[in-house]
Amino acid sequence: MNRKSFLKSCGYGCLGTAGMAALLQSCTASKQLGGTIEGDDLVVPAAAFETRNKGQVFYKKYIVVQNEILQYPVCIYRFHENEYSALWMRCSHQGTELQVFGDRLQCPAHGSEFSSRGEVQNGPADSKLRSFPIVIENNRLRISLKAV
Q: For labelling alongside 1, which of 17, 37, 50, 99 has CA 20 to 30 A away?
């Protein structure tokens, strides 16, 4: 392979890698949205869980909600039409922001894992995640942020 072919191949490889990274990043952002704060509540439309494909409605298992007032995002899991779990994405071990992997949350710092209901599945964390009560009202989820 001559130098020109080599540089051309490397250039295409770099462009392909950058394009794939952008594509993957856009996929993860699809489950994140901004919630509004109303009083002591974080408010999210229930429709945020819906996706449509060829006229059919499907539901996401979870969404991640952020607001500039909150120090950490809130992960909301949908189990059924009227059953949700809202978890603060702050590791109970040392406060690192958690990452979502389907029906579990994981700490990138020390590997603690939590279930979709906030229970510790794997340490070193030894206490469950902070959860928030949810009230469904007018097709909106009202997540109470009041300290309990």
A: 17
